[in-house]
Amino acid sequence: MEKISIYIHIPFCERKCNYCAFVSYCLNEEKQNEYIKKLIEEISNFKINKIVQTIYIGGGTPSLLSENNIRKIFDALRKNFLIDKDAEITIEVNPNSVTEEKLKLYKDIGINRISIGVQSLNNKTLREIGRLHDKKAAIKSIKLARKYFTNISADLILGLQHEKNVVKYAKKLISLGVKHISCYMLEVHENTKLFSLIQERRYFPLQDEEVVKSYQNLVKFLKRKKFIQYEISNFAICGYESKHNINYWTFGDYKGFGASSHSYIDGYRIENASKLEEYYSGKQIKEKKNSKTEIEERIMLGLRCKYGVSIKKLSELGYDIMENPYFKDYVEKKIIYLNDDIAYLDSKYYSVSDYIIEHLI
How many Cβ atoms sit within 10 Å of the Cβ of residue 124? Predict the structure, then answer.
């Protein structure tokens, strides 16, 4: 039987972080319950004859969910889908809203992977970016999670003001038993508080060259600690890579539930509405992915991770990348290397991957 991954979007936050551009709302309990009711209806009304290999509950802040609501979601999933007994099941949590009681519940209902939004271990930085936790709370949440889970991921952000060295944070996370680290470059989006602060010259993120140096130092450190860099921003001890994300990057089918969620099933892209009223009315955008879009996505995703891109698949889609003069040049300079049918970007060049990929699509 074919396999599929499931993503569930929980758009609740206590307060929106200064840098956040994701779909999230500060909702009272009544409004949250209304959303969960609609979410469960969506889950219950979707039928597919595929085995669920991963489930990922993201947000927003899924750890804000009440015990009753998280149980309702998992009851609906198990009633509606055949879930692999070895499925990877992840929930995102924030240090300020996760408790030992919730962690016990997560384990009880079958969750086996925890992703913690640490972002930084500097209290001043955390205040500047609008996080509701401090260093002490972040460390406490990891220690609590370790009591119930071995598969723990933590997020860090690169490029924050005054944060030239995140290696010390990674070192601390590893000492606490974290097996996976996602380290994302700071992205400044319009309509965020951080964008306004920068425009008003009240916040100064790191310069590009400083970010690149910080990133390269982190990569070297994690490599020494036996963390595999399996994607430009993701590092893991062998066996603790995110199976859910790998499914995205290797073009497996996935179904998204909830406001603003995306799906890719049998060659079709489906996007749920972001505004709650439109989501509740069932508004979606569905389109067949064309070959041009797929070519671009396969090159972009494949060269950003260790799985590479199939030259044969690109050819089947109508693009002979071997005839691209930039591609030839990158191969000659060993920036890109070939192994049979697969082209890989040397991880040394991940920090400038956008520039390289731009020449190939």
Answer: 12
Task: Answer yes or no: is pLDDT of 21 > 80.
Answer: no
Q: Is the dihedral of CA 203, 207, 212, 213 positive or negative?
A: negative
Name the pLDDT band for 231 (thresholds 50, 70, 90).
Answer: very high
pLDDT at 79: 97
**pTM higher than 0.85:** yes
Euclidean distance between CA atoms 62 and 54, whole angstroms:
17
Q: Could you tell me the pLDDT band of residue 283, with boundaries at 50, 70 and 90?
A: very high
Say which amino acid occupies 39.
L
pLDDT bucket at 18, cuts 50 / 70 / 90: confident
Amino acid at 127: R
69-97 burial code (b ≥16 CB/10 A, e <16): bbebbbebbeebbebeeebbbbbbbbbbb
3-state SS, the chain, equals: CCEEEEEEEECECCCCCCCCCCCCECCCHHHHHHHHHHHHHHHHHCCCCCEEEEEEEEECCHHHCCHHHHHHHHHHHHHHCEEEEEEEEEEEECCCCCCHHHHHHHHHCCCCEEEEEEECCCHHHHHHCCCCCCHHHHHHHHHHHHCCCCCEEEEEEECCCCCCCCHHHHHHHHHCCCCEEEEEECCCCCCCHHHHHHHCCCCCCCCHHHHHHHHHHHHHHHHHCCEEEEECCEEEECCCCCHHHHHHHCCCCEEEECCCCEEEECCEEEEECCCHHHHHCCCEEEEECCHHHHHHHHHHHHHCECCCEEHHHHHHCCCCHHHCHHHHHHHHCCCEEEECCEEEECHHHHHHHHHHHHCCC
Average pLDDT, the chain: 94
Residue pLDDT, tens place only, 103-133: 999 999 999 999 999 999 999 999 999 999 9
12 is written with which tokens? Answer: 């609740």
The domains of the chain, with CATH numbers, are 3-249 (3.20.20.70), 303-361 (no CATH)
Q: Which residue is associated with the tokens 């969750």? A: 111
